[in-house]
Amino acid sequence: MKKIISMMTIVLTTISCTNAQKTEFSKESLSYELTTLEGTKTSFQSIIDANKGKKTVIEIWAGWCSDCVKAMPKVKEMQANNPNVNYVFISMDKSMDKWKEAVAKHELKGQLFWVNDEKMMKGEFGKSIDLDWIPRYIIVDEKGKILIYRAIETDFDKINNILKS
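Above: the chain's sequence. Below: its structure in token form.
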């Protein structure tokens, strides 16, 4: 019985540590280069730096993702209710053309980037931010510190409370 309890404790500790709240991005994620609508490359670090001074919502999404599409009205409502917040959309779409079609279809407003990685969520960038679900929301404060590292479409109340504080 003691062995079972010990093993359960180890498993639970491991799970809670892997889901721990991070306050900084990894070096791997910061050095990753994302593609702009114009086709130029920019590092994730440059995106974070460019948004210092304002709270920033980063949404990892894809046009093929039904949960992402269902969440779009809530994202647009969040944008309307929090106009002093910056919004960064990072797409995991399979191709640049599909990404551009999705941006136009959903009339996204904000800073738009694409992860050019055929492994998409399981690729280098996805692994570097512990991506296990989309849509995924990361909230960054005015200094570039992570306030929320892992939020999904069911966490809009939590996200809105952080944006209001």
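The helical segments are 2-18, 27-31, 44-50, 66-81, 96-106, 124-128, 156-164.
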